[in-house]
Amino acid sequence: MRTPLVIGNWKMHGTIVEARALAGAIRDGLKRPRGVQVVVCPPFTALALVSEVLSGSPIQLGAQTCHHEPAGAHTGEVSIPMLAEIGCRWTLVGHSERRKEIGESDELINLKLRALLTQGFTPVLCVGETAEERRQGLTFTTVEGQLRAGLAGLGGDQIAKTVLAYEPIWAIGTGVNASPAQAAEVQGYLRGLLSELASKEIAQTVRILYGGSVKAENAEVLLAEPEVDGALVGGASLNAQSFIGIVRKAARIGTATKE
Length: 259
Ligand code: PGA
What we know:
single chain, alpha/beta, TIM Barrel, eight-stranded parallel beta barrel, 12 helices, 8 strands, about 15% strand, globular, binds 2-phosphoglycolic acid
């Protein structure tokens, strides 16, 4: 049984005042989430504050990216020990916005993943195809390349500690989510690859989230798919009520119907 996981990716949104209010509302609305794990990923400037707001709450803290070196002359970057110091144990890796805007390569993403795993973090490796790639029938080729390169050189025990997120780029921030069948098809394919890269047993334990225009209204049908182990939520995670709504649906489905 894979515990459903819901992650809020706040992206580059929120002043300190807004972050405090949002984190506080999520904490108060989810005092004892049962059957679901919840993580929020605020921007760097709000991490320390949100860590304080969430202290004592079961909601965990994640970063949106990190540098793979522990320290050094890397202007503008934030290291994994710096994140650990403020209570962060999760990090998104290879989000499509960073691949596209910052030019993050599969090789760099792999370095980050290895560093995170070595330092006891849970990396959330994001993969997904563009609309054009899907049109050309390249969806599986694209995600397979991203997965193999991202996990290159990792042992089965490390793969077991990784979370995957399938985020079709055409679904991110567009309001057009993948259908449950589309998500399940790609996520089943990714799980098959995990069996090959690690083992069948390990592949069965790794959580694969879906991301891309997840809202409280469509979360139920997406999360009902056995291959969808949770959601990576962007826009809808900026509103406490809609994020809480998604978490509640994940909790209900996770405890009730799967397996
Ligand atoms: P969205 O973003 O929910 O706003 O589509 C998802 C993501 O980019 O992680």
